[in-house]
Design brief:
The protein is mostly helical. It has 6 helices and 4 strands.
Amino acid sequence: MARKKELTTIADKLEQLDELQAIYSKIDAIQILRGELPIEVADLEDEIEGTKKRLAKVQAEIDDAKAEIEHRKSLMKEAQALITKYDKQLHNVKNNREFDALNKEIELQKLEIKLAEKNIDKAETSISVHTEQLEKIKTHLSNKEKDLEIKKSDLQGIIADTEKEEAELIAKAEEVEVDVEERFLTAFKRIRRSYKNGLAVVRVSRDACGGCFGYIPPQTQAEIRTKKIITTCEHCGRIISGVDDSEITLSAEEIA
């Protein structure tokens, strides 16, 4: 986008930066109004997603335990069928060797049944533990989903009330930025990113920087008043656009 106009004096450039700061301060105020809601919504969404994965994992443990029980029951059924088969064959043995071999097979199948019963007990315990855990996770998930619904509703309400104003301010800021000299705009944006309050352009008030409240000497204030150079605070690096003399004037009126 082409520059709309060229500003030649430092005073004009400072006024322009002041205007840009005022616009962005209003945008910041809108975002502060939203508070931590956007972050809280994002955090809740992440937590809910993680909880759902945990829920699925616990449910898989329960399903695996149920499948294990069915498998072991099937093995028990097969073992019992073999025991019945071998027991019948005992009545038709021809020698001790066959008798011992069949008894050994019966004992092995009985051991298989005992092992299956042990594994079934273990799986049932796992189901009991994981079912209790599952219910707690479901309750937690339900509560978090309700919290998310409330916070989303609150956020949407705030956005609905402020999005038009914010869009207009952003558009206005973009219009002003077109006219700002590139080196000043770069510095402005860099300083804004450096401070949470977003103040890049400030004024001197009560002999102090309006950003960091560092002391500004009288000689520096005099130079700032001339608006012949762009001065930055030696303490915080913010651009100083002017000196607020209202306190001095007020004191003079009070003295009078």
